[in-house]
């Protein structure tokens, strides 16, 4: 074992402690709690070691408010001579806890080589791993070239607009500043994630006419219209999507086809507050809204993806008198995939081979992550996701990260640093 790997082994307890400290800050999104606290923890640690630290609030970005400001931190360590910059980007926000936990979700309990907690694998373990890797590399290679950056950014779980998107707009991922990016998402330590599928979110609204519930024949029920839309989806749209397949190495296998999730549906009278003790009013619902989450493949065109929905709605309209509808775009992200021969891909592939003794598997994520903003806004294509953790554990009760997985991934990251900057 060489000096760099030994240095990381010696920092295992620090890696565990740092991961626990990060998990114990409940950065729940929504609404966006304790963002400044976690950025301060990272910034103070790195600043004490001589890193340049910049705290950036995404003022005016989607989600930013006086009550819940969107804070990000970027830490940079300059080398002794000119060279490339390798940036490790991790999001610091976590999703809601949910039910079914047997561990305290914010206690960061260490048990049998695993650290349990919300955000353990997605992705505070990855953030801690990148910090330890960078610190170990800087300690053993004080004369390195170029620069290292570590960022902890907001709101990836809700689109990243108050985090990486904002920073990319401000030039933090300009190719003149940063040349290589690793996002330590939990894709397993023996996988390199090259990119992700595309996504289109939209609302479909069916329209009706309100009337007294005792005389529904005087109205027009928007919920029944939506029921016809759902029937048409089952009959024609879902079979169509199941037949679309990609050459992208998307994981898991089921995501190699186009998919559609019916995210939410609501029609009729709004849901009342929990303390309301009365009955609903008797009305025919005059609107029903369905929110859809369409994931599409790199082989598909976004315009055709949208035309498929419109064509489906027109088929329903042809069969139903007085059928009226509206489709509203919410947001869209194009698929992206970094080439396998890109410098960061090859460097990490070689490091995985050296540390784990096998070739890394190339994969593509079924859902988007912050690579979309680095690619589209930052115009930086040399970006991958690589980090410790099992993807299937993300957003689950009793989420955990394995200590040995973090140590191994830290060795891979540090070796990538040495090959790019050493």
Automatic annotation (TrEMBL):
Pfam families: M20_dimer (PF07687), Peptidase_M20 (PF01546). It comes from the Bacteria. Pathway: Amino-acid biosynthesis; L-lysine biosynthesis via DAP pathway; LL-2,6-diaminopimelate from (S)-tetrahydrodipicolinate (succinylase route): step 3/3. Its EC number is 3.5.1.18. Its cofactor is Co(2+); Zn(2+). Gene3D superfamilies: 3.30.70.360, Zn peptidases. Keywords: Cobalt, Hydrolase, Metal-binding, Zinc. It is an enzyme of class 3 (hydrolase). It catalyses: N-succinyl-(2S,6S)-2,6-diaminopimelate + H2O = (2S,6S)-2,6-diaminopimelate + succinate. InterPro entries: ArgE/DapE (IPR010182), ArgE/DapE_CS (IPR001261), Bact_exopeptidase_dim_dom (IPR036264), Peptidase_M20 (IPR002933), Peptidase_M20_dimer (IPR011650), Peptidase_M20A (IPR050072). GO terms for biological process: lysine biosynthetic process via diaminopimelate. Residues 195-315 form the Peptidase M20 dimerisation domain. One of its GO terms (molecular function) is metal ion binding. Belongs to the peptidase M20A family. NCBIfam families: DapE-ArgE, PRK13013.1. PANTHER family: ACETYLORNITHINE DEACETYLASE, ARGE_DAPE-RELATED DEACYLASE. This is Probable succinyl-diaminopimelate desuccinylase. It comes from Jannaschia pohangensis.
